[in-house]
Amino acid sequence: xxxxxxxxxxxxxxxxxxxxxxxxxxxxxxxxxxxxxxxxxxxxxxxxxxxxxxxxxxxxxxxxxxxxxxxxxxxxxxxxxxxxxxxxxxxxxxxxxxxxxxxxxxxxxxxxxxxxxxxxxxxxxxxxxxxxxxxxxxxxxxxxxxxxxxxxxxxxxxxxxxxxxxxxxxxxxxxxxxxxxxxxxxxxxxxxxxxxxxxxxxxxxxxxxxxxxxxxxxxxxxxxxxxxxxxxxxxxxxxxxxxxxxxxxxxxxxxxxxxxxxxxxxxxxxxxxxxxxxxxxxxxxxxxxxxxxxxxxxxxxxxxxxxxxxxxxxxxxxxxxxxxxxxxxxxxxxxxxxxxxxxxxxxxxxxxxxxxxxxxxxxxxxxxxxxxxxxxxxxxxxxxxxxxxxxxxxxxxxxxxxxxxxxxxxxxxxxxxxxxxxxxxxxxxxxxxxxxxxxxxxxxxxxxxxxxxxxxxxxxxxxxxxxxxxxxxxxxxxxxxxxx
Length: 484
Known about the structure:
The chain is α/β, with parallel strands linked by helices. It is 28% helix and 16% strand. It starts with 6 loop residues before the first strand and ends in an 18-residue tail after the last helix.
């Protein structure tokens, strides 16, 4: 049956953990609008960022290709891997869609459209503040982009970037879109990424709530922690932050999540007012998670669930009558699936070669879910070997760290919080061999005749690491940055 082309709303957040929605979330967390999306659609419970870093995840969304295909495994220039013709907005444009991006795109250069008809960026937000004569300045707490410390917004809620992104999205829906064509709108929030600076009432909403304590794996001691993660947490001194500060940081983080959820209600109201809500496909996800004190760590990058696993909701138009509403799926999904899924909804065909799956076919049993998913991430420019290679089949997760080397194995069914490393107790060979076979085909330089690539430990002391941190001091619109 041929369906009319739906309007498409892609909503992304930045650095939002998977356990902030659904049954994984603490009971105290208030997310009524995301809950409503789940009631009307499908919640994917095994969604992962293959490279849990901002730009690589966005490139996956835009191209339908995995990091093993497009090659971006650290933050960098989007123009080096994306053009204007085979991106998600360009392909939807070919199907007759008006396309718009509002919020944090993290493209380089920032105004590179990569196929969008129009873009409204955080730079425009700062310009609006200045030209409006508003004396307050946002993010003037002094907290940086990768710091795990709580703060509070220096502007009231209506003047935050989060609220402005929602207002601009509403304005597009109500005033700026072409009413004669379907639209594709990517609304991209920059929170709950640090700085952890929610405005009131969100800043105090969870201060006295029973905030869940961080979880620490038996492998997370300095003696057992893989060197790549140990170096990251020591560089940022995440491991020295007191439990009291971690608790306050978590309360601020939850406040930022709720702020986003509440402004989503305004966007949905705009769709409803324009009689578009029921005919719009809505997909919600985040680019990666956040350790938030778990395993004595902060930030993201690594392939533990708190960092790599993301919320993922797909709500089809009500007119489709799929019967998917209120359901869950344990299919392994990732950001590369967004392009073929949304393009299929628009009756389009994705380019050849991408690893992304059309999730509409998966849900309809017309396509087989992937048997496994792989992940990797680089550290910085000049590093020849990534920090890790990983693989999961949804039950078992195996991570290989070339430095040392070291490895980890987790049984996600019995140990969902990855508290027990089984690599010394269980046979890792089948998982290692499966990962090796995949890398041999997709990343040949990650495999030698002896197996997975190995590198010796670096000769850097703890003091060296703590002195080399870049916690992300950039907090102003005028400083270009592609590093956080």
